[in-house]
Amino acid sequence: MLRAQSAQWAYADRWQGTAMTADVGTAFVVTRPLPSRVVSVPGLGRAVSLVTMAALTAIVAWLRLTPTARDTLWAEDGREFLQRAASDPQWTTLLRPYAGYLHLVPRIEAILTVDLVPVQWWADSMTALSCIIAGCVATAVYMSSREFLSWMPARLAVSALTVLTPLASREVLGNAANLHSILFWGVLWVVLATPHTRTGQMAGAAFTLLAALTDIQVVFLLPLLLWNRRDRRTWPIKAALVVGAMAQITAQLLAPRAWGGRGAVSALSLAEGWAINAVASSWIPIPELGRALSAALPGVFLCLLIPLSAMAIIWCVGTRRQQILSSILLIGSIVVWCAGVMVDPAPWYDYAAMSPLELTHVWLSRYGVVPAMMLLAQVGVAADALMRHPATGRRIAARGLMVVLVISLMVQASEPLNRRGAGPAWAPQIATADTQCDSRGHPAATLRETLTWTVRVPCRYVDG
Fold first, then answer.
1. Domain C-terminal end among 233, 258, 283
2. What is d(CA 288, CA 87) in angstroms, rounded to the nearest whole number?
3. Which residues pair with 447 in a beta bridge?
4. Helix, strand, or coil (residue 397)
5. Are 268 and 206 within one domain?
6. What CA–CA distances, in Å, run from 125 to 84, 100, 107, 116?
7. ∠ CA 352-272-398 to the nearest 5 degrees?
8. Residue 82, exposed/middle/buried by CB under 10 A (0-12, 13-18, 19+)?
9. Residue 428 falls within a domain, yes or no?
10. What residues contact 319, with CB distance under 8 A and at least 6 apart?
11. Which of the listed residues 203, 223, 258 is the one where a domain comes to its end?
């Protein structure tokens, strides 16, 4: 028997491969086999957790789309990205401007799809890759938000907004053409973060550069270069933002966007459109939103009280960093919405002039997705601010806010809102494409996608 002289001790017999442990008050020896070799990889567990989070978030994005929507190409996904990747020298397409700016990540998706995936699965591939990238963005938001949000449920909720914001499933989720909105949301958080390791710096810079070479709206984030400007750990990320923004501005100057010549949208319509798209669509089920606007338009605007109340909480009990973040989110929400509508004005954005009947079929725009994310994030930040205080009442209020946010997101998570839901599906058209290629004089098959657009697929892919 062994008498313990300390709280706990252990002796390992290398030759016999056993360990003996004794605790205070015990008079016996416990032996257990020891592994012949223990391999420890620093950060492996964390990396596995982050990969798992990205995968689960991507699956959520995928499940928010119907099978037909997944198998339907959206707009530029076919006619611009896939068609270019299948017909032109691929390396020349990567930084080719389209509509006045660069689209690096969608073009990479198209090249991977054309080179690695059978033609009948091209639409599913573009959808899956876009969902995977959305999952990666959600993980980046989770990692980057830790300086502002210390409460785990709040961080998870804010990162989940990447794929669970109700309006996102209408036009943004699962297609490469509008993936830039999700990347912009991710860059916002990455630029505000301070990486604590060299790996974090390089990963953040690489993510920022890819996103900045995909979305021209990153120019709105240039003022954030002043955030933590003396902290050298943030310089690689900020340098990547500057390089990407300058490349986008150059692309706009060399290949400017073609303007439609439509009249400008009034300031009142901009304000009402922001309230409808960025606020009301998050708290009123979208299938019921038109009827609610038609029946009680002023009452719908009461939804504004939710983000405004969250901001009031942040400014009353939040940290200084949270207060600055709240202001950035509000200003960013307004700027992103107004910029999108002002650059691409159309009669359906003239909300102030709409009759009750027209409001029943109100137009909801992809330009409202990121603004909605920013306003929904205010609730998560407010909950974290309350949770930092030991008072029981405040902690109960924090949990209540999280319940309200989660319920609002989950109510619409399964709504079939995607504009691709009616097709035309891609895979069933392959048989027709084969017939076109069998006809003499047809070097490419013409297939249909959304918005009455078509995409020409070289027959070498169809025949293969």
1. 258
2. 44
3. 455
4. helix
5. no
6. 16, 26, 13, 10
7. 160
8. buried
9. no
10. 385, 388
11. 258
* 256 closest CA partner among 67, 408, 99, 111: 99
- DSSP for 150-217, written as a single string: -SHHHHHHHHHHHHH-TTHHHHTTT-STTHHHHHHHHHHHHHH----SHHHHHHHHHHHHHHHTT-GG
Return the pLDDT at 433.
Answer: 84
The pLDDT of residue 441 is 65
Q: What is the pLDDT of residue 425?
A: 95
In angstroms, the CA 68 to CA 424 distance is: 8
Q: Identify the CA nearest to 149 among candidates 138, 139, 159, 164.
A: 159
Whether residues 109 and 83 fall in one domain: yes
Residue found under tokens 């909605």: 372
User: Which residue range forms the structural domain that includes residue 379?
Assistant: 263-414
Residues of the chain with pLDDT under 50: 1-32, 34-36, 38
Say how many C-beta atoms besides its own lie within 10 A of residue 313's C-beta: 22
pLDDT at 9: 38
Are 103 and 189 contained in the same domain?
yes
Task: Note the pLDDT of residue 40.
Answer: 52
Q: Which residues contact 225 (CB under 8 A, 6 or more apart)?
A: 238, 241, 242
Distance CA 424, CA 418 (A): 13
The predicted pLDDT at position 4 comes to 40
Cα separation of 159 and 114, whole Å? 31
Are residues 284 and 204 part of one domain? no
Q: Which residues of 389-422 are buried (b: 16+ CB within 10 A; e: fewer)?
A: eeeeebbebbeebbeebbebbeebeeeebbbbbe
Q: Output the pLDDT for position 440.
A: 62
Please list, in sequence order, all residues whose beta carbon lies within 8 angstroms of the beta carbon of residue 310, skipping any fewer than 6 positions away: 326, 378, 379, 381, 382, 401
Q: Is residue 96 domain-shared with residue 195, that is, in the same domain?
A: yes
Give the separation between CA 99 and CA 217, rounded to whole angstroms.
13
| Residue 375 near residue 326 (C-beta atoms within 8 A) | no
Residue 401 falls inside a structural domain? yes
pLDDT of residue 301: 87
Q: Does the reported pTM lie above 0.85?
A: yes
Which pair of tokens denotes residue 444? 């490419």
Residue 457 lies in a domain: no
Q: How many domains does the chain have?
A: 3
Six token digits for residue 390: 């030991």
Assess if residue 427 is contained within a domain: no
One domain, residues 229 and 336: no
